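Troubleshooting entry. The earlier prediction with flavin mononucleotide gave an output that would not parse, so I re-checked the input for stray whitespace and re-submitted. Clean input:
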Amino acid sequence: MNDAGDGAGVAGAKNFSPLQNDPTELIARASRVQQDFRIADRRIWPNAYLAPMSGVTDICFRRLVSRLAGGRTGLLVSEFVSVQVLAQPGSRENPKAVREMAFTEEERPFSIQIFGADPERMGQGAKIAAATGCDFIEINCGCPAPKVVGKGGGSGLLKDLPNLANILRTVKRSVDIPVTIKVRVGWNDDLITLFETLKIAEAEGAAAFVIHGRTRAQGYKGLANWDLIAEAKRRAPSGLPVIGNGDIVRPADVLHRLETYGVDGVAVGRGAMHNPWIFAQIADLYEGRMWKEPGKDDYLWVFREYEELLREQMDLDLRVLGKLKQMAARVLKGLPGGSLARLSLLRSQSVEEFRGHLFAYFDGIDSVERDYGVLAELNGGESTEVAAGNTYKN
Ligand SMILES: Cc1cc2nc3c(=O)[nH]c(=O)nc-3n(C[C@H](O)[C@H](O)[C@H](O)COP(=O)(O)O)c2cc1C
């Protein structure tokens, strides 16, 4: 069963709307699901957290999400960091790696995700990453980009499981903080490696096992296979948290995955780009109350706050503008007139012009009731929401 929540398959995703969210029912369901898990002795609550996304979940986006949720983000993870870069002699100061590993106290617990294929380098990279004071290290076994896979890293590790085991062992030996791994279910339909990687995670003492329910061959197309994720959870020892990932866009989806597939937690990727409030929403449900749907002021606050966070990191107006456009492309999807507004926003030549279009759009609409069906349809289709040119994909 692969569906998008509340029994609505993606084909039927058009048929659901937030109005179907009966608050009493959602709160009752939330009170019955597992709401936390542990990575070693650290409690992760809520158990729905932001999945790492290179080019998206940088320090600015993570802080934005954390602020929207009043700090209730469970866990935040860095973008993937190359150990090739990290562990080169003299490259500790590599500006890209330093930027990717930077975090603030408000983001704790914070995990740095590393990728590579050489066990020694992975160990050295993990040590450098751990020296930042982060709480966990995660090993990336999912990146499908040819330039990563071609060197044996990311999902390339799924084709060399002895090396994956060696990497996990070496990284664990190199640091004294917990190490987690994030895998895809396999290379392709003929090479499903999920249960082997689970065994490796168990044997080598991973502190959590995160599963993106697609194969490498799928990229981001089609739906995540939650049946496989559920089977991995059934086979996992009780001390190893299993986190499912794929196609979650609304709090109801989180509940549905926890209820139906028995995972200890979920990670939310693209859904959080479209709905950065999702962690606040699920945390509200867990605390026994219905969330408030974002209004116009909330949308405007998000853009204002994000711009401030971006300006702390970037001097160039054009870079700030680029990130604001990236946000607009996602956050306005499913809003009334959102497509037209996006066109003018994305054509803006300056932040001032962008702001002007943004205010004009929100001034000109009566309601910001969102069509979540549009968001659910973004997953599972043939088109992918990963922008062409994104280094994580190509
Ligand atoms: C733009 C983009 C960048 C990504 N970068 C990373 C990454 O650096 N590390 C990682 O483990 N997964 C990365 N992923 C995969 C996501 O973490 C997640 O596994 C995937 O998007 C499926 O979840 P979703 O259906 O909720 O989006 C990326 C995904 C996207 C769309």
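This one parsed fine. Residues 296-369 form one domain.
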